[in-house]
Amino acid sequence: MGSNLSGDISEVKFLTIAEVASVMRVSKMTVYRLVHGGELPAVRVGRSFRVSEEDVNEYLRNSFFQTG
User: Would you say residue 2 has pLDDT above 60?
Assistant: First the structure.
């Protein structure tokens, strides 16, 4: 999902699951479901997950839909 095709991750901002949940205004369990379901890419660091801020933004952009 991420747009960083050069492979350089030094400028990537990673968020914790709690931070992602706060940005998306959902529960941490919802974020875990998205990660485990493959809908939101994440990196495993020890026993924790980190999600790039760009992947969160892209997921939210792709989730918009028109009503009415």
Answer: no
